[in-house]
C-alpha cells in the first residue's frame, strides 16, 4: 500500500513502517513554498492520499499560510493540522486553542509537536493521518459494495443436517 503526504520543500522521502500490524510505505513529498503566497499546485494534492498542514507555533504567518493553503486547495483527502516547535513556548505566537479551533473548522486531527526533540510525536501524527486514510478507503470500499449489491440486505440460509430432524409444520 502506498501512503503519501504533502508537507510544506520540494523533496521526496520514503519510509516503511508496520502500523497496527500492517506494512505501510509512506511516500512523503515536502513542498517548498517560495514565499507566503506560494500555494502548492493542486495536482500535488491529487497525488497525495493525505495532507499534513504544518505551521510553527512561534510564527503567526505560518499559521495564516496553512489556512490559505486549505482554502485554495480545498482538498478532499484526510488532513492533519500540526503545530511544530511546541518546545519554544516562550516564543509562542499561536495558542493551542487556536490550533484546535482551526482543526475543528478543517474537520481534521490536530497535534502540537516538537519535531526537533520528540520524534515519537511526529511519528504518531503520521500514524494518525494514515489511520484516517485507511478508514476512508474502507468506507469507500464498503459503499461501493453496497451500491453493487443494492440496498436490500441479503440473508443467507444454509441447511444443516439437523434441519431434517426439525418437526415439519
Ligand atoms: N526548537 C525547535 N526548533 C525546530 C523544531 N523543528 C525545526 N526546528 C528548527 O527550525 C529550523 C527550520 O527547520 P527545517 O526542518 O528546515 O524546517 P522547514 O519547514 O524546512 O523550514 P523552512 O526551511 O523555513 O521551510 C531549523 O533550524 C530546525 O532545527 C522544533 O520542534 N523545535
UniProtKB/TrEMBL annotation:
Q: Which UniProt keywords apply?
A: Hydrolase
A Pfam family of the record is: Ras
SUPFAM superfamilies, A to Z:
P-loop containing nucleoside triphosphate hydrolases
Q: Key word DNA-binding present in the record?
A: no
Q: What is its EC number?
A: 3.6.5.2
Q: Which reaction does it catalyse?
A: GTP + H2O = GDP + phosphate + H(+)
Q: Which domain of life is it from?
A: Eukaryota
Q: Give the InterPro entries listed for this entry.
A: P-loop_NTPase (IPR027417), Ras-related_GTPase (IPR051065), Small_GTPase (IPR001806)
User: Does this UniProt record's set of keywords contain Translocase?
Assistant: no
Instruction: Provide any one GO MF term from the record.
Output: G protein activity
**Which top EC class is named for this enzyme in its record?**
hydrolase
PANTHER family in the record: RAS-LIKE FAMILY MEMBER 11
The Swiss-Prot or TrEMBL record describes its family as follows: Belongs to the small GTPase superfamily. Ras family.
Q: This protein is called what?
A: small monomeric GTPase
Organism for this UniProt entry: Eumeta variegata (Bagworm moth)
The taxonomy runs: Eukaryota, Metazoa, Ecdysozoa, Arthropoda, Hexapoda
The coding gene here is: RERG
Amino acid at each position: 500500500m502506498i501512503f503519501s503526504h504533502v508537507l510544506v520543500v520540494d523533496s521526496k522521502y520514503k519510509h516503511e513502517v508496520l502500523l497496527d500490524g500492517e506494512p505501510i510505505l509512506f511516500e512523503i513529498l515536502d513542498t517548498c513554498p517560495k514565499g507566503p503566497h506560494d500555494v502548492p499546485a493542486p495536482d500535488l494534492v491529487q497525488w497525495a492520499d493525505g495532507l499534513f498542514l504544518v505551521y510553527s507555533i512561534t510564527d503567526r504567518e505560518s499559521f495564516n499560510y496553512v489556512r490559505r493553503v486549505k482554502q485554495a486547495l480545498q482538498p478532499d483527502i484526510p488532513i492533519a493540522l500540526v503545530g511544530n516547535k511546541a518546545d519554544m513556548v516562550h516564543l509562542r505566537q499561536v495558542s493551542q486553542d487556536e490550533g484546535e479551533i482551526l482543526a475543528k473548522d478543517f474537520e481534521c486531527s490536530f497535534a502540537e509537536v516538537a519535531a526537533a526533540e520528540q520524534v515519537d510525536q511526529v511519528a504518531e501524527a503520521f500514524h494518525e493521518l494514515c489511520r484516517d486514510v485507511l478508514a476512508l478507503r474502507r468506507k469507500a470500499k464498503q459503499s461501493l459494495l453496497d451500491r453493487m449489491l443494492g440496498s436490500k440486505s441479503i440473508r443467507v440460509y444454509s441447511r444443516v443436517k439437523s434441519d431434517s430432524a426439525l418437526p415439519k409444520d
